[in-house]
């Protein structure tokens, strides 16, 4: 269930500023930071402050806000000097869907011609 912080959860720790991250945006509901192992330059993660594992336990209001911030981040990347040519906004829910951190997050992934990244 969605709780304010989960023991041992790295994204809860980052949201609480108890772990290091390159934060690029934050508000009362979400924090956005650079992925530690970016698949392309500028790879961002949009993370609700509340601990929810995935789609099943994240409330709709928080989810809607996270997607909206993801949209804003994608637009900002398109307008930035990163000069990306496309964007993937991606959610991995469940181990078979390549989820590795079990705290809900959206990937905002700038795409460049020939960047070679495949899911
Ligand atoms: P998933 O596969 O769960 O959708 O994605 C988890 C993402 O979180 C991966 O892209 C991984 O590089 C990133 N990640 C994992 N641990 C950390 C961390 O401690 N800090 C940051 N900034 N990113 C992390
Ligand atoms: Zn968490």
From TrEMBL:
Q: Where is the HIT domain?
A: 10-118
Residue numbers covered by motif Histidine triad motif: 103-107
**TM region(s), chain numbering:** none
Give the domain of life.
Bacteria
Protein name per the record: HIT family protein
At the highest ranks, the source species' classification is: Bacteria, Bacillati, Actinomycetota, Actinomycetes, Micromonosporales
């Amino acid at each position: 269930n969605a709780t304010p912080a989960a023991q041992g959860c790295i994204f809860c720790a980052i949201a609480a500023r108890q772990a290091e991250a390159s934060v690029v945006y934050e508000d009362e509901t979400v924090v956005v930071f650079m992925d530690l192992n970016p698949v392309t330059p500028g790879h961002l993660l949009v993370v609700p402050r509340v601990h929810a594992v995935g789609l099943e336990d994240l409330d709709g209001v928080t989810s809607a806000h996270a997607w909206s911030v993801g949209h804003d981040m994608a637009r900002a990347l398109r307008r930035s000097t990163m000069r990306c040519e496309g964007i993937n906004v991606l959610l991995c829910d469940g181990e078979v869907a390549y989820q590795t951190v079990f705290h809900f997050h959206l990937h905002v992934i700038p795409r460049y011609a020939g960047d070679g990244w495949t899911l």
